[in-house]
Amino acid sequence: MKKDIYAKMQILSDSAKYDVSCSSSGSDSNYKTGELGATHNSGICHTFSADGRCISLLKVLLTNYCIYDCAYCVNRSSNDIPRAAFSPRELANITINFYKRNYIEGLFLSSGIIESENHTMELILRVLKILRFEHKFNGYIHVKLIPGSDEALIAEVVRLASRVSSNIELPSDNSLKLLAPNKTKEKVLQPLKIARDLSLERDNKAIGMSTQLIVGATPESDFDILKLSSVLYDKALLKRVYYSAYIPVNDDKNLPAILTKPPLVREHRLYQADWLLRFYGFSYDEILTSQAPNLDEELDPKTMWALSNLHLFPIEINRASKEELIRIPGIGVRGAHKILKARRFKKLGFDDLKALKISIKRAQYFITCEREFQREIALYPENIRAALIKPEPKKQPSLFDVSGITGEL
């Protein structure tokens, strides 16, 4: 690889790392070339296929030149940073060379806005055409659509990509106007609407679509964020919303101070709440309300909901429906299926739940098993909360102890 191409790769893979619309990013460490186990921040990220396979992707920008001046973005036009741009053929050739060497299985492609939205989308489209038609590459390609591009260009990209996304970034029009004056909610949603309407044309299967929401850069509450996510899911605009804890990269009067730590716990709680929306049948206004608009940093969202609705508990394990079981803190979908299956043969007690590998640390306060219930803690919200957040006594870790590695909401 030529030195100038290598330099571009360093700049453009590093510039892409703040986009979280794939499952994880590449590793970063203080490596020394030639040492065993050395790693390099080479722009490799990972996503997962429908059958559960982990797919390695080259995650890179076509260019980090940008005509936009979004206050939160490291690539904003007013920042004095190293800039670079691949030609479509350079990037296509790099992708194929990496693929042939078994470094990657696909491409995650985004870009700054160079010259205009349409010009940038045309360059991205050219990359896809070289890969698909010249190299006959049928692998995974995730493309970040450019808001404001012509519908015809978006349609061509959608037909050639495996997955597309368009970053909404900020949860409200007011925040967009303040921090990203080149963007509007209508503008960033436009590519997703076009992609939704076109995706069913391909084998009658909808293309996977996602977006990113930045958490903590602006004053919107968790209620506002979950409401927006719920609307996007209900309108079939998205398969997945990614929440990104705001990382201060610019010093701006309209942003948190540059030394502010990313709200990682808040990001984690939003992912848990999002899981409840997508897989557990919760609505956003069950999880949060305008009167209590933020998630609890000490308790997961399902436990938080249960403590606010103790009149629905305790639930009898031996008579509850699947829908009731999955709303019990600590019992997930798999746990509910285990309980329903085991109930066919006997009445279940607490020991039976433990034998089924059901985590009863949280569940015990919200269930009965043949009218038996835990008797140590009075069933009041404050008592249960105190018991749940009480630190566990430390124990000597065992090489073979895997408890706590897995669990359900």
CATH C-level category of the largest domain:
Alpha Beta
Gross morphology is elongated
**Can you count the helices?**
15
Q: Note the beta-strand portion.
A: 5-15%
CATH superfamily of the largest domain: Aldolase class I
Please state the average pLDDT score. 87
User: Do you know the CATH topology of the largest domain?
Assistant: TIM Barrel
Unreliable residue runs: 23-31, 36-41, 402-406
Q: What is the gist of this entry?
A:
This protein has 15 helices and nine strands. With 409 residues, the chain is an alpha/beta fold. The protein is elongated, with a radius of gyration of 24 Å.
Question: What's the layout of helices and strands?
Answer:
Layout: H1 3-15, E1 44-48, E2 54-61, H2 88-100, E3 106-110, H3 117-134, E4 140-144, H4 151-160, E5 163-165, H5 173-179, H6 185-199, E6 208-215, H7 222-234, E7 240-245, H8 264-279, H9 284-287, H10 301-308, E8 315-316, H11 322-325, H12 333-342, H13 350-355, H14 360-363, E9 367-368, H15 381-389
Parallel strand pairs: 2-3, 3-4, 4-5, 5-6, 6-7, 8-9
Antiparallel strand pairs: 1-2
Helix pairs in contact: 2-3, 3-4, 4-6, 7-8
